[in-house]
Design goal:
The complex is a heterodimer of chains A (176) and B (135).
Chain A lengths: L1 H22 L18 E3 L7 E3 L8 E6 L4 H16 L4 E6 L3 H11 L5 E5 L3 H5 L7 E5 L5 E6 L4 H18 L1
Parallel strand pairs in A: 3-4, 4-5
Antiparallel strand pairs in A: 1-2, 3-6, 6-7
Chain B lengths: L2 H9 L16 H13 L16 H15 L4 H12 L14 H26 L8
Classes of the chains: A alpha/beta (176), B mainly alpha (135).
């Protein structure tokens, strides 16, 4: 009886681990910023080079920071989703224009629509390193105290919005 | 083609390791540390390469960051901590030993101990059975 029970149990445990494991993405790098204050930055605004944006911009409301660029295919894919999220008006979307050309970025937003409340230009990518950005698009959820609460890597989809981001935003706003 | 010619041609590929466009650091001690650190940090875009080997744009940015930090006097520890603070333990090829990574470091030894233990139990049990004779 034991001869089959012990290996069978071990097998069952392994099945559970492998099942869960197959749903995970090994190339995804979890962010160590979760639960920590948003990294400090001072960057020029996209629309007005004379204005500066800092991490203080996030204070006072639950907001999203979307790292994007015109050369990024995934960003093009998620753009309509961003417009939809902006239209829902649950949380403002701030943009971090990553290693891009200012003129290209302005033209892109003019042509495709602008979901951003404000856009910071990180031409060198230095500020993005502080945020642990390794591939656009990436979207951060920041609470009203300026603490990073969640990070999504890759294009935003309706599923991600409905299941991961939106519930968290609602919860954070209720808790405030 | 003669064997020696083939070998010579192969050896010519060795200097191709360098992909930095900034040139070597002036201080040879810093250059050594730079090479050591950039080989220890993982490129998160091409995750099987270090930032020393990867041609990804992010790898270049991180190499510049390491270089700047070295030139401003940061220690190896500080540079590695800087990267881990932003990208997590995964950015180091040999992550530090802590509450999150102990399983990674010790796991193989535990598995080996388990395997040897089971093997030992099975062998000891088997040695008690009578030997079969071949007719």
């Amino acid at each position: 009886m034991f001869r089959t029970l012990i290996p069978a149990t071990i097998f069952a445990i392994l099945v559970v681990f492998f099942w869960v494991g197959l749903t995970l993405d090994p190339s995804e790098v979890p962010s160590p910023l979760i639960g920590k204050p948003a990294p400090a930055f001072t960057l020029p605004s996209l629309h007005d080079a004379g204005t500066e944006l800092t991490e203080q911009t996030f204070r006072g409301q639950v907001s999203l920071l979307n790292v994007w660029a015109t050369w990024c295919v995934g960003c093009r894919q998620e753009h309509d989703m961003l417009l939809a999220i902006a239209a829902e008006d649950v949380a403002p979307i701030y943009g971090l224009n990553y290693k891009d050309d200012r003129a290209d970025a302005l033209e892109w937003l003019r042509r495709l629509g602008d979901p951003y409340k404000a856009n910071a230009v990180d031409q060198s990518g230095e500020a993005a390193i502080d945020w642990g950005v390794y591939g656009a698009p990436e979207t951060f959820l920041i609470d009203a105290e300026g603490i990073v609460r969640y990070k999504h890597i890759g294009p935003l989809t309706p599923e991600v919005w409905q299941q991961k981001l939106r519930p968290r935003i609602v919860k954070l706003k209720e808790g405030a | 083609m003669s064997r020696w010619l083939a070998l010579l041609i192969l050896f010519c590929a060795l200097p191709a390791a360098a992909i930095d466009d900034q040139g070597r650091l002036e201080d040879p001690a810093l250059q050594t540390r730079y090479e050591k650190l950039t080989n220890e940090l993982r490129c998160l875009v091409c995750q099987n390469q270090s930032i020393a080997d990867s041609t990804a744009s992010l790898a270049g940015d991180l190499r510049v960051q390491v270089r700047d930090m070295l030139e401003s006097g940061a220690s190896d520890r500080e540079i590695l901590d800087y990267m881990v603070a932003r990208y997590g333990d995964f950015v180091r090829y040999r992550p530090g030993f802590n509450a999150r990574t102990w399983m990674l470091w010790i796991g193989p030894f535990i598995a080996m101990a388990l395997g040897l233990g089971i093997a030992a139990v099975v062998i000891i049990r088997r040695s008690g059975e009578p030997r079969e004779t071949v007719e």
